[in-house]
Structure formats: structure tokens, C-alpha cells
Amino acid sequence: MIKLKEPTYYTRRAVSWVRTFKGGLTLLCLLGLLALPLLTQNPYYLGIFITAAIFSIFAASWNFLAGFTGQVSFGHAIFLGMGGYITAFLLRFVNVPWQISLILGGLVSVVLAFLIGIVCLRLKGPYLALGTMALSVFVMRLFINEPLAVANDWIFFGTPGIDRVPPISTEYVEIFYVYTIIMVVSILILIIIGKSNLGTIFKSIRDDETGAEASGINLTKYKVIAFMISGFFAGIAGGLLAMRFRSVTPMLFQPLYSFYAIIMTTIGGLGTMGGSVLGAYIFFGLNAILIDLWDPIFIFAIFLILIIRFADMGLLRPALQRLKDLWDIIIGR
Q1: What integer is the mean pLDDT of 303-315?
Q2: In 10 A of CB 131, how many CB atoms?
């Protein structure tokens, strides 16, 4: 008689999670997302979801830093841009496979996050936010600098940046599935880290720095580690963005992209990776709907104000609670 292998701890936890309302709803949404190409293969619509998947990773990387350790960065676009440039350079000029180029772009962003973290994470509150934003602007101007680009054309490419970056594929359906899978894996990794002992340390720093330091936690060390993890996934998002639009420019370093991550996190909810995903898809979904209106920015601003006023913790938690209440009524609980 064949003896069945006993399920592992993580398998049991995964099965238990799927049986919950939140887990079942998440799985249903994921299956619905993966079924999208069965409904339409229009490049425009698939492109919206591809871009949303990229910015889900970017928003989650910012949310990990701010939501788990309480370190607010206004210069997160540094890692997005650096990951994009390294990936684009390796693909365009060295012919490195896209998988390796993407990982190397993320790793260079980790090194950059380490260096910036050592300098900036000794700052606190608004000084950290302003310090990272100033660095973002500095790096953008560095890459735009035309004389520097002419003198070092293999390092800095000036205003035009790098064009003709090879894409993952010429088939939009294939790109959609690859980007969606990378997004899901990235979010899962961040969730696992958040629930680990390391994540517990990050949250203790977020909740009470003085108490965490009194407990023997090296604040600077763990803040830098959080910055490096966050920088890696922001770099991955930058590499995906470079392949998605087949180019990178210095404007990728501008603080506007950092604010995009903040807005998406605000929509979905701070401190929850699922909130970042929800915020990114709502952001680009609304943008696609409002783009033909007279002033979509004005309408989008009103939408954000309403969220901040009536759902200051984001939309994910209250939406889940309302849906669960409705489900309980339907099944008669």
C-alpha cells in the first residue's frame, strides 16, 4: 500500500487560507484575471492590465517600506529608474537574456538602496521623505546632463535615454501572462517576508522605534535591510517597465512616479500587499475610463479626496468586510 506524503506546514497553511473568505475571493479574482485573454486579446486592454501588474509590484515595494517599517520615501523612483536602465542596457547592448537582465537590474537597485539607506535612513519623518526626493531629482538631472552623456555615452545616455529595448515577446497574450505571474510571485514573496520573524521586527520598528531599540534591535541595520528588499522589487518593476515600453529615459527617476506608488497604496490601503495590487488596478482602470473626459485629473482628485475622507485605511479592508457581511447574509449565517 502506497503511503501518502504528509502535507508540509506551508501546504496546510495555504489550504487553510484558501478556505477562508479572503483567500477564496483572492483566488477567484486571480483566476478571473488569468482568464482575461479568453475574453479579449485586444492589445490596448491587455496593455492596461500589463502596466497595472508592473505598478502593482512598484506600489507593493513602496508599501513594504512605508507600511511595514514606517519609512516614507518620496524618491522611490530612483530604484524604478535604475532597474529600468540596467535591464535596458543589458538587453540592448550586451544581449543578456531578459530573465537575467531583470534580476541584475533588481540587484543593482539593491546595492543603490544599501548606499542610499546608509545615508538617508538616519533621517526621520519629513526629513527622510525630502532627502529621498532630493536624491531622486539629483539622479534624474545626472542622467539628463548632456555634456556628461557625450563624455560617457556608455554610462549616461542623455535626454533620449535607451530606445529599441527588446521586449519579452511580440505576443501580447504571452507578455500578459509573464507579467502577471511575476507580479503574483513578487507579491507572495513580500507577504511571506512580512509574516516572517524579519517582518515582525520591521513592524516593531514601525510601531515603536524607542521600544524596539530598547529591546536590542539595531534600527539602522533593519531599516537598511527593508530599504534593500523594497529597492529590489522596485528595480524589478523598472526592468519590466523598460521592456513593456521598449525604452527608458531619465524621466523615470522623477518624483512623480514615487507619488504614483503613494497614490496606489493610499487607494488600496497602507500595510497590506493586496491593497497595493487593488490600488494599481483601480488607478489604471480609472485612468482608462476617464482619459477621454474633459478633465480626468480633476475627477481622479475628487475620487482620492473621497477615499481619504471616508476610507482612510484604503479600500481593501472595508471592501472585504462588506463583501463578507453580504456573503454571510446570502448563505444564512
Answers
A1: 75
A2: 19
